Amino acid sequence: MVLSMLAFAIEDSLIKALSQYISTGQILILFGIGGTVIFAMISLIQKSALFIRDAVSRTMCLRFFFELFGRLFYFLALAFTPLVATTAILQATPIVVVAGAAIFMKEKVNLKRWIAIVSGLAGVLIILQPTSDDFSLVSLLAVLGMLGFSGRDLASRAASSNLSTTALGFYGFLAVTISGLLYMAWTKSPLILPSQPALILLVSAIGVGVMAYSSLMKAMRIGTVGMITPFRYTRMIFSIFLGIFLFGEILSTAMIVGSLVIVISGLFIIMAGNRAK
User: Fold this and answer.
1) HSE-up of residue 218 (Cα within 13 Å, Cβ side)
2) 97-106 long-range CB contacts below 8 Å, 24 or more apart?
3) Whether the model pTM is above 0.90
């Protein structure tokens, strides 16, 4: 899980750097195609089926939509907002997933966990500072991306066990490709031939992204959720380091306080859930 979070943080940094060379839509298309091809090749090697009936179920269609939605807005957030702020808001995903499971899947959540959920969402507001003069609507891109990933994770919980990790990865990256095509069509941005530095960043992002996703799925299948989920928050540490030393970002007081509130709330929800089990 720690390796996965490190890889995701590096992927985010590479995508942010790549956005200086080519448009976000083109990044989504090329990144998605690269990941789709790699997972298709892995499927051929493993002789695992990709095109089965469960792949077009209602749950998988929802997962596909939320993956598309989440990736599009998260990549836009990486391009236009600080890496540290984007990653900090993303850490609220497990909190929103628990709230969504209680609302849509009728899972039991006690009062203490609801208080932690509200506290975690308050942490997001602290980071955004919607009432301050520095607030920008662009900062909501990370929130939309986080909501998309939350919906994807909820749909993944309900997805058929007949779908392999490779299949989920294949359809996940396919959604990224389609999100890029839709965004390019909407913005009418032209495709350009990436320069050598852009190609290096792109290939590196694809390789690291596939490794991140594979490591995450491996961790989820080997360890118990309660044991490994807290290690998701190591991504915040890696992103802070990369944001400061690669992009010269500065941690504000609101950023630090909001991030701590989100992390503490998330850890409390996890621990409370483990005690309940």
Assistant:
1) 11
2) 97/150, 97/153, 97/154, 98/269, 98/273, 100/150, 100/151, 100/154, 101/154, 101/157, 104/154, 105/154, 105/157, 105/158
3) no
Query: For every residue of 165-218, which 3-state class applies, written as one string?
Result: HHHHHHHHHHHHHHHHHHHHHHHCCCCCCCCHHHHHHHHHHHHHHHHHHHHHHH
Buried b (16+ CB within 10 A) or exposed e, 73-99: bbbbbbbbbbbbbbbbbbbbbbbbbbb
Q: Are 248 and 255 in contact (CB under 8 A)?
A: no
Distance, in Å, from the CA atom of 174 to the CA atom of 178, rounded to the nearest integer, reads: 6
Sign for the pseudo-dihedral over CA of 45, 7, 148, 110? positive
Encoded tokens for 238: 């890696």
- Say if CB 11 and CB 209 are below 8 A apart: yes
Q: What share of the chain is helix, strand, coil (3-state, %, to 5)?
A: 80, 0, 20
Interacting residues of 146 by C-beta distance below 8 A, sequence separation 6+? 70, 74, 89, 90, 92, 93, 96
How far is residue 7 CA from its own chain's centroid? Answer: 12
Burial of 137 (0-12, 13-18, 19+ CB in 10 A): exposed
SS3 82: coil
Which candidate, 62, 79, 63, places its Cα nearest to that of 27? Answer: 79
pLDDT tens digits for range 47-96 = 877 777 777 788 788 888 998 999 999 999 998 989 988 988 888 888 88
